[in-house]
Amino acid sequence: MIRQFLTGLLAMAMICIALPLGAATITSHIKGVTYEDKEWAPVELQTFMTKLADTTVKYHAKREKQSPMYGLIYEYALIKPDGDVLWKEGVGLDTMHDGAWFGNALAAAYRTTQDKHFLDLLNEYTLRYYPNVLNNSDKYFVLGLKDGEAWKDDYKDVPIPAQHSDALVSKGICPYWWADGDAVAIEANSKPLIGYKSGKYTSLHMADDLAVMLGMTATLTQRDDVKLALKHLALSDRQAYGGEGYSPGVNRVAQSIIGYDEEIKAKWGPLRFPPPAKVKDPEKPPFSRGYMYDALIRNLNRGPADLDGTTWRYYHGVLSQHVKPLDDEFAKQVIANVYGQIVWNQLWYGKSPRQPGSNKFDIAGMATGEKYKAYFADVPNYIQGSRGGPMIIWNAAIGLQLLKAFPAAWELYRDQYCPNDVPVEIRWTSPVVDGSADAQGYGKPITIADGVTVRLASSLDTLYLLLDRAAGTAVSMEIFGLADAKQPGAKVNLAADGTLTATGRDDAALLNEVKSSKQGARELVEIALPYTVVKEQQPWANACDDARLSLRGVNGQVTNLIFLSSPSTVETILRKECIEGLRFWEFILSDWGFIPSGFYPERGKNGIWNGFSDTGGYAHLINATAAYSQYLQGKNDWELYNNVRAK
To answer: 222 versus 304: which is more confidently predicted?
Structure first.
């Protein structure tokens, strides 16, 4: 049983590492989806970007020019069987940031291709709508109203400042939603939306997305009204945010674009960056070790389904690079977050191959401590979505650019903070447990007793140990969940006759596999010990990139271990995400006719989440396609930001 279990893990790893060697056909676990696994050409990517952009406008854009809402890109479009469209918005969701994502994607597409079509769409819709809202919100919205007070049955009854002379107003406010009856609430049995969100009018999440879009498009277009909208956003009345506080990111973007502005400085203070870190404590690096590390090693019971935070971090760096140039630490953070997200998703799939470019539905996070609360094997028809997956592709393409531009970045933490630790390489393939040393994988020998050494290797979900002992020598060791023997892990005892006993915390027996081979008076013993994150395993420890575990042998010596994938492995997996992920969505758009918000794998095309087309999905896919096209052409997104201006 154990051998079958570990063989399944190995098969999963071998499937996942394969890169296209021609035009192989991939059959997805999403019912009815097949696509050619072949590299893209820039011209194909431009065609795909254009189709994505045009489909978004076709289904989501409000085009009544007499309306103050002209240019609005609705979040959800319900595509009816007869082809008609019904717009739907969420009363409790900041739905209008979807249009900001779309505008930012159009700017990226133009910088990548110089195709004026993308610039025309940007100016006609996104940059007509948002500057109007943000520069005139003091004419459209009354602040201080209780939740629901600005939602009416007739548009003429919607409260506006002109009818409330003593009303609190502010420029720079973009509410959760604003509608004249063309859209209905997404909540069941809801009436048409007329008016705007009040109470908690907007969110910092939307403000961050708007700031990034305005910053990126202001630089591209050099439009004064766009810069003014960014300033108003930064100065907007905080009452509209319902006590959420403030976003330093909005300040950073505003000051980076507008410069030394007295009004912004008075509200926010000057723009500051932390000084370079001087302390080299390996447990206190000046950057996070990634989402997966936080979940599986720090045991934080949370996990995002998206990479919003990583995306904001990247854009904030790009927008302020004239003050603080991009560096190795910046690149490391972005790469670690996106690569970790891919690995983290694959661990959720367990022995099943994951569809690149796909992720759990919308904003559904992966609840986890050391283990997932539920695995793909438990819920194989768990609803998938078009937001988190395409965002992973986008960040993967940016990660490829950063990996090439900053070649020392990926190994930064290991080399600078942990030079005395013994490296353990994490691979997507596994050693064959046969009692012999594979050609690659195992690290340098560690002496754990007189005449006894151990070498270590790791796959995504299993630790491998290769013991070299005198035949018939009993050996024991402890493996700890943190460096310096600070967290209990596993006790491994190998009897003289080769019997292995492995126990985790609370002395629970651990899944393992062992095989030995004699070479004269010596004996090699190979052990596989799945990590805690594996569904069937008892708790002991996890490992992931930049995790530090430790080992203590019979001799009492504690050796610290540092786990890290090779840069070539990271590049391979990021490329796979881009190639297969974009091919997957190319098929979806062509065969299904739009980018759905969600779908059920076992139902495929018939499992589209209520027929909803999703602006966020198109936007992230356009960004992903643009960034991968840049990579293939040897260009960097952050340099195009500096050099390309609208013509």
So the answer is: 222
Exposed (0-12), middle (13-18) or buried (19+): which is 258, by Cβ within 10 Å?
A: middle
Buried b (16+ CB within 10 A) or exposed e, 356-371: bbbbbbbebebebbbb
Q: Predicted confidence band at 301 (pLDDT cuts at 50, 70, 90)?
A: low
| The two three-digit tokens of residue 43, written as one number | 């011209």
Count, residues in the chain: 647
- Could you count the other beta carbons within 10 Å of the beta carbon of residue 549? 27
**Rounded Cα distance, 608 and 547, in Å:** 39
**What is the share, in percent, of the chain residues with pLDDT greater than 70?**
94
Q: Which two tokens stand for residue 510?
A: 């651990």
Supply the DSSP string of 339-402, one letter for each residue. HHHHHHHHHHHTTSPP-TT-EESTT----BSSSBSS-TTT-TTPPEESSHHHHHHHHHHHHHHH
Percent of residues in the chain assigned helix, strand, coil, to nearest 5: 40, 20, 40
Task: Compute φ and ψ for 43, nearest 5 degrees.
Answer: -65, -35
Render 296-320 in DSSP notation, one character per residue. Answer: IIS--S---SS-HHHHHHHHHHHHT
Q: What value, to the nearest 5°, has the Cα angle with vertex 102 and ends 38 and 330?
A: 75
Which phi and psi angles does 188 have, rounded to 5°?
A: -60, 140
Q: Put residue 181 in one of left, alpha, beta given phi > 0 → left and psi -120 to 50 → alpha.
A: left
Answer yes or no: are the C-beta atoms of 192 and 181 closer than 8 Å.
yes
Query: What residue type is 306 in one-letter code?
Result: D
Q: Which residues contact 334 (CB under 8 A, 6 or more apart)?
A: 310, 313, 314, 395, 398, 399, 402
Q: First CA to last CA across the chain, in angstroms?
A: 65
Residues 406, 412, 417, CA angle at the centre, nearest 5°?
160
pLDDT at 243 over 90: no
What is the per-residue pLDDT across 539-565, written as a single tens digit (0 to 9) for each? 999 999 999 999 999 999 999 999 999
Between CA 419 and CA 417 the distance in angstroms is 6
Q: What pLDDT does residue 495 have?
A: 96
Instruction: Say if residue 13's pLDDT is above 60.
Output: no
Nearest CA to 385 out of 616, 75, 44, 117 is that of 616
Strands 513-519 and 522-530: antiparallel
Q: How far apart are CA 232 and CA 209, in angstroms?
A: 15
Q: How far is CA 506 from CA 166, 170, 443, 486, 539, in A?
A: 67, 59, 30, 16, 9
Tell the burial category of 97 from Cβ atoms under 10 Å away from its Cβ (0-12, 13-18, 19+). buried
Q: Which tens digit of pLDDT belongs to each residue from 104-120? A: 999 999 999 999 999 99
Asked if 515 contacts 434 with a C-beta cutoff of 8 angstroms, the reply is yes
